[in-house]
Amino acid sequence: MAGETEIRELTVELGERSYPIRIGTGLLERAGSLFEECGFPKKSPILLVADESVVGLYAGKLERSLKDAGYSVATAVVPSGEQSKSLAQFNDLITEALEAGLDRRSTVVALGGGVVGDLAGFVAAAYMRGVRFVQVPTTILAHDSSVGGKVAVNHKLAKNIIGAFHQPEFVLYDLNTLKSLPPREIRSGFAEVVKHGLIWDAEFTSWCDRNSDKLLALDDEALGHALYEGCRVKSIVVSRDERENDLRAILNLGHTIGHALEAVGSYNQLLHGEAISIGMVGAARLAAKFGYGEELASETERLLRKFELPVRIPAGYDTDAIMSAMQHDKKFTEGAMVFVVPKRIGEVEIRGDVQAAWVRDIVEQLKGETG
Amino acid sequence: MAGETEIRELTVELGERSYPIRIGTGLLERAGSLFEECGFPKKSPILLVADESVVGLYAGKLERSLKDAGYSVATAVVPSGEQSKSLAQFNDLITEALEAGLDRRSTVVALGGGVVGDLAGFVAAAYMRGVRFVQVPTTILAHDSSVGGKVAVNHKLAKNIIGAFHQPEFVLYDLNTLKSLPPREIRSGFAEVVKHGLIWDAEFTSWCDRNSDKLLALDDEALGHALYEGCRVKSIVVSRDERENDLRAILNLGHTIGHALEAVGSYNQLLHGEAISIGMVGAARLAAKFGYGEELASETERLLRKFELPVRIPAGYDTDAIMSAMQHDKKFTEGAMVFVVPKRIGEVEIRGDVQAAWVRDIVEQLKGETG
Ligand SMILES: NC(=O)c1ccc[n+]([C@@H]2O[C@H](COP(=O)([O-])OP(=O)(O)OC[C@H]3O[C@@H](n4cnc5c(N)ncnc54)[C@H](O)[C@@H]3O)[C@@H](O)[C@H]2O)c1
Ligand SMILES: NC(=O)c1ccc[n+]([C@@H]2O[C@H](COP(=O)([O-])OP(=O)(O)OC[C@H]3O[C@@H](n4cnc5c(N)ncnc54)[C@H](O)[C@@H]3O)[C@@H](O)[C@H]2O)c1
Ligand SMILES: [Zn+2]
Ligand SMILES: [Zn+2]
């Protein structure tokens, strides 16, 4: 049996929609009793939606635990990759839910990374106008996507444009599932962990800096702490602004440039974490325009390099294409150019007065310099 | 110009999601100033979703009023009929919204009956995880569907199975638009008006009884009163139980049998109001099983006949098919057979102890007797 570490628990405070996040090893095996504790009714079938890369490895454990507790479970497999976040895949899952007899008291469980979490979450949000939802994230990046209730699928013209706010009943983060992640996915996931430090917590940022080796080696104890702290920052922000009226936008640090890079690379060159890593360096350089410390950019860059993340725009990316992808990003409300800009490590602000020319300069720099 | 009647207004009380319903003549022409009063931002484009049967008659007036007030409006036309409540049509409208540049502060406006209201409402619920929504109902039945925030599309295996609760910002009910309704749609719409009387208000029920002729002739004054009272009952019920945990289920009077009849008729034989008219007679006959007055059934039947609505199951409907369609209805939570049963005119109760054999008997009666 894999080493047993402490189970860490925290609560996303959202009034009557509050929910716990549990992080530790061996949690899949205990899912059944958690469902019982939460009072999920046994007569209502559960739909388990699993990424095809993880279904063979972990779905069996989860199913067994649920069935042993007396639940009936139907499992639907979703092809790996961003293209599964589509209305077609959504419709197929609704068919599976109907065929499995899911009723208003049923639960949809997502087992996988952000793709399966976002997709299954939208199924849970829309099936019979909303049923229970449980997140069982299996990537490091999904410490971010599984918390906060944003669920969505893509449209051919825009990512995440069709969705809902639908909070899970709980998040079950079994560290054992992360062991099978490809190294590149591991590094990409840490970009969001680092982001949570940079926007909110200087102490945690410096802890990440000191523990990067342990983290990259997936040391259970370090990993548990990092995911706990990442989830904690995310949940504080979401608690204060569930529907992104103001504060929640700080979670987009690095995402304005990052999303543009993903789009220009047709979503198959840079991983999400890699793109926002470059984006965070860009945002840190923007800080200097507002008179914040020059060393912010070099510090940010040094930290991301420790996680073996890219900090320069790869060759072949066209500046005009990047700039125009940014104009289409939905974060530009009413045409104003809005950016999350760091003030110091652990603190950011949302600025609506960012000039496109500055951004273009920085994009050019990040292309020109050798990484 | 069509006769100007008093504008009736009522509020659906839902805390910060409360909204007004305005009923009267000549309201389309005033839409622009209402949008302004509500503070809808002028920079954010509006998507007007119109039923193809009404677009030529009324969309121009609405567009002009909005444009005169300084709004930019894109109009999308939806084919008439239930088959438009599909994910395919939903996806097309998302495309139109993106192409028209709708942002997070934009509004989706539904101009049509329940089909367009439900479809455009789900677009508003899901586009960018939710934008503003305005209902401009053009059928009598839509006094029901435009209030209460239930929005949905159909799946090939089940009606209304994909949806959300998404309340409108307001409902604008222009009586002038009802003048072009086909007579059969008029009668069908009054079935839901009568239903609102039967479940909540004996006095209003008796008023309907006395004014059926004026109503069928679409007399503005009588129509305004009937739609006001229908909306009032609906909004009281929705205010007390927005998400159908308990009370809201009383709105399903006549719908258990009604939905089964619609399904068995492949949704192209009976109109919704016609089906629930028969269903309400069935529910009233069930009342006798619980010791409530025998005259309830004959009274209900007499009233519905005054609105020229069907009160018997047409020839060719198979009892087994009706019974099995009822078992699939999502209102049968966990296999129990739940029915809304009238106690007296103006009061109903939700009973979970209805035996299938009773229902089967009543279905047989409603088939056997000559209407
Ligand atoms: N909802 C939100 O708030 C939010 C936040 C951030 C990102 N996202 C979304 O999350 C998605 C990205 O998430 P992701 O990075 O987890 O991507 P992902 O779900 O595609 O997973 C990455 C890859 O790892 C594989 N995989 C997953 N778990 C594995 C495991 N345990 N072992 C081996 N392989 C495994 C997957 O098959 C996939 O190929 C994007 O669609 C993004 O839009 C959403
Ligand atoms: N959301 C809810 O709470 C709720 C409640 C009840 C019904 N519904 C839904 O409403 C739908 C039925 O609504 P409906 O009866 O309004 O049907 P509808 O929208 O199909 O309209 C009926 C017919 O009248 C035509 N029409 C509409 N307005 C017209 C006008 N002013 N002049 C001439 N023709 C006009 C339409 O093209 C259509 O052919 C169903 O899909 C049902 O599921 C929803
Ligand atoms: Zn991200
Ligand atoms: Zn109805």
UniProtKB/TrEMBL annotation, chains A, B:
<dbReference type="GO" id="GO:0046872">
    <property type="term" value="F:metal ion binding"/>
</dbReference>
<feature type="domain" description="3-dehydroquinate synthase N-terminal">
    <location>
        <begin position="76"/>
        <end position="187"/>
    </location>
</feature>
<keyword id="KW-0057">Aromatic amino acid biosynthesis</keyword>
<feature type="binding site">
    <location>
        <begin position="138"/>
        <end position="139"/>
    </location>
    <ligand>
        <name>NAD(+)</name>
    </ligand>
</feature>
<dbReference type="GO" id="GO:0000166">
    <property type="term" value="F:nucleotide binding"/>
</dbReference>
<keyword id="KW-0862">Zinc</keyword>
<feature type="binding site">
    <location>
        <begin position="80"/>
        <end position="85"/>
    </location>
    <ligand>
        <name>NAD(+)</name>
    </ligand>
</feature>
<dbReference type="GO" id="GO:0009073">
    <property type="term" value="P:aromatic amino acid family biosynthetic process"/>
</dbReference>
<keyword id="KW-0028">Amino-acid biosynthesis</keyword>
<dbReference type="Pfam" id="PF24621">
    <property type="entry name" value="DHQS_C"/>
</dbReference>
<feature type="binding site">
    <location>
        <position position="192"/>
    </location>
    <ligand>
        <name>Zn(2+)</name>
    </ligand>
</feature>
<feature type="binding site">
    <location>
        <position position="255"/>
    </location>
    <ligand>
        <name>Zn(2+)</name>
    </ligand>
</feature>
<dbReference type="InterPro" id="IPR030963">
    <property type="entry name" value="DHQ_synth_fam"/>
</dbReference>
<dbReference type="GO" id="GO:0009423">
    <property type="term" value="P:chorismate biosynthetic process"/>
</dbReference>
<keyword id="KW-0170">Cobalt</keyword>
<dbReference type="InterPro" id="IPR050071">
    <property type="entry name" value="Dehydroquinate_synthase"/>
</dbReference>
<keyword id="KW-0963">Cytoplasm</keyword>
<feature type="binding site">
    <location>
        <begin position="114"/>
        <end position="118"/>
    </location>
    <ligand>
        <name>NAD(+)</name>
    </ligand>
</feature>
<keyword id="KW-0479">Metal-binding</keyword>
<protein>
    <recommendedName>
        <fullName>3-dehydroquinate synthase</fullName>
        <ecNumber>4.2.3.4</ecNumber>
    </recommendedName>
</protein>
<dbReference type="GO" id="GO:0003856">
    <property type="term" value="F:3-dehydroquinate synthase activity"/>
</dbReference>
<comment type="pathway">
    <text>Metabolic intermediate biosynthesis; chorismate biosynthesis; chorismate from D-erythrose 4-phosphate and phosphoenolpyruvate: step 2/7.</text>
</comment>
<feature type="binding site">
    <location>
        <position position="272"/>
    </location>
    <ligand>
        <name>Zn(2+)</name>
    </ligand>
</feature>
<dbReference type="InterPro" id="IPR056179">
    <property type="entry name" value="DHQS_C"/>
</dbReference>
<comment type="similarity">
    <text>Belongs to the sugar phosphate cyclases superfamily. Dehydroquinate synthase family.</text>
</comment>
<dbReference type="InterPro" id="IPR016037">
    <property type="entry name" value="DHQ_synth_AroB"/>
</dbReference>
<feature type="domain" description="3-dehydroquinate synthase C-terminal">
    <location>
        <begin position="189"/>
        <end position="331"/>
    </location>
</feature>
<keyword id="KW-0547">Nucleotide-binding</keyword>
<dbReference type="GO" id="GO:0005737">
    <property type="term" value="C:cytoplasm"/>
</dbReference>
<keyword id="KW-0520">NAD</keyword>
<feature type="binding site">
    <location>
        <position position="150"/>
    </location>
    <ligand>
        <name>NAD(+)</name>
    </ligand>
</feature>
<feature type="binding site">
    <location>
        <position position="159"/>
    </location>
    <ligand>
        <name>NAD(+)</name>
    </ligand>
</feature>
<dbReference type="Pfam" id="PF01761">
    <property type="entry name" value="DHQ_synthase"/>
</dbReference>
<comment type="function">
    <text>Catalyzes the conversion of 3-deoxy-D-arabino-heptulosonate 7-phosphate (DAHP) to dehydroquinate (DHQ).</text>
</comment>
<keyword id="KW-0456">Lyase</keyword>
<dbReference type="GO" id="GO:0008652">
    <property type="term" value="P:amino acid biosynthetic process"/>
</dbReference>
<dbReference type="InterPro" id="IPR030960">
    <property type="entry name" value="DHQS/DOIS_N"/>
</dbReference>
